[in-house]
Write a structure and sequence with these properties.
Helix content: 25-40%
Shape: elongated
Number of helices: 4
Number of strands: 11
Number of domains: 2
Strand content: 25-35%
Strand order of the largest sheet: 5-4-3-2-1-8-7-6
Largest sheet: 8 strands, mixed
Structural class: alpha+beta
Order of helices and strands: EEEEEEEHEHHEEEH
Amino acid sequence: MAIVVSYDHYEDLRCEVVVFLDDETGDCFQIQRDLPSEPGDYQISAGVGPAVEKGVVAWQRVGDEFQFALSQKASLMFGGNARLRFDAQSASGDTIDSVAAHLERMMSGKTPSRTPQTEEDAVQPDNPMAGLLQQAQQMQQQLLAAQSEIAAAEVTGTAGGGLVSVTGTGTGEVTGVTIDPKVVDADDVETLQDLILGALADLGTKRDALTQQKMGPLAGGLGGPGGGIPGLGG
């Protein structure tokens, strides 16, 4: 099993990403920073599903090995494992040193910079990891685009035939509630409460369906979270 690490700066999607990819299972650990953003404002994810803001408590590099301590919330993406370890190799023009520098900068919020690849540093055609990295980069772009579409989407849940509706974003934020005056009865508060809960449940169902529609085809290519990601142990 090899863990391939790469850095990419996507001008069109206005973000930069470091990805640790398991070449056998397709599982990945992703650190993403949107551009522009506040200092140290980054997200981590397992490639599919929701991301966690600032989920790394601490990290260090020992030789070619990267070690990450995750917050409790972030660890749930990796089967409750709060410590991850990657003995990584670079299959792109980036070196292990440059990836470590990118990580340090992304988490401190400095302006991104990237040194152009030299002819010597470029991935050569006979490199067995080149095809894997190219596929991972293409899928990464598709994943980021899908995440952007979900974040920009507006979803509405309803109950009581539309008497109560709740509107929210694809990422979970509730942005509005509409209640038909005919269901507002001081003597029957429980019915209104039930309708609001029903609308929220419908909103959650539709949000899950949207995520599955956008991310489902990508999940198969990236593999399930945590399956091939080695941890540091208890």
